[in-house]
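Example 9 (inverse folding). The structure is encoded as follows.
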C-alpha cells in the first residue's frame, strides 16, 4: 500500500511542461483526480474548484491529471484543456500534463495509486474519469470512485482529517 512518503519522489509534468513531484506538496493535503472535459462527470470541476477555494489557505490543493483513456473524453491539447478549465469552470488549481492511468503505459503515480483501496475494500484499475485520491501530509491515502462527488461528506472528512496534519506555517 503506497503512502505519501512512497509517492513523494514520483516525477509529474505540469500542463505547462515543467516538472514537479508530489514532494513539492508534502506539507499539503492533496486531492489527486484524473479529469476530462467531455465526460458526464465533467461538472465535478466546479466542486473541485470550490474545494480549492475553500481549503487552499489551510494547506490543501487539488491536482488535476487530464486523461483521454475513457472513450476519448479528453481529446484536447494542453492549451485547449487549460482554456476549457479556466473559462468554463474558473479552475485555479494546478493541472498536469495528460497521462494514462491504466494499462501498460500508466503513469508511475497511478501504478502506486492502483494499490489503494476504497472504504469498501476495492482497489485496482481506475474505473473512469474523476476517480479521487486524498493524500495527507501524514501519509494516509484515501480513494473515492468517480461517482463520489468532490463535496461528498466522506471526501470532506478525509480532507479535514488531513488538514489537522498540515504544519501551521504551511497554509
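The amino acid assigned to each position is listed next.
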Amino acid at each position: 500500500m503506497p503512502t505519501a512518503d512512497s509517492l513523494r519522489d514520483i516525477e509529474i509534468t505540469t500542463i505547462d511542461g515543467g516538472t514537479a513531484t508530489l514532494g513539492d506538496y508534502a506539507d499539503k493535503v492533496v486531492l489527486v483526480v484524473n479529469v476530462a472535459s467531455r465526460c458526464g462527470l465533467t461538472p465535478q470541476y466546479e466542486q473541485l474548484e470550490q474545494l480549492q477555494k475553500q481549503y487552499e489557505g489551510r494547506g490543501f490543493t487539488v491536482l488535476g491529471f487530464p486523461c483521454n483513456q475513457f472513450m476519448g473524453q479528453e481529446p484536447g491539447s494542453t492549451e485547449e484543456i487549460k482554456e476549457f478549465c479556466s473559462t468554463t469552470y474558473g479552475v485555479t488549481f494546478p493541472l498536469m500534463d495528460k497521462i494514462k492511468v491504466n494499462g501498460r503505459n500508466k503513469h508511475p503515480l497511478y501504478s502506486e495509486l492502483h494499490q489503494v483501496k476504497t472504504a469498501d475494500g476495492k482497489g485496482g484499475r481506475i474505473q473512469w474519469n474523476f476517480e479521487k485520491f486524498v493524500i495527507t501530509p501524514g501519509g494516509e491515502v484515501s480513494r473515492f470512485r468517480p461517482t463520489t462527488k468532490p463535496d461528498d461528506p466522506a471526501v470532506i472528512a478525509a480532507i479535514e482529517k488531513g488538514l489537522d496534519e498540515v504544519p501551521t506555517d504551511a497554509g
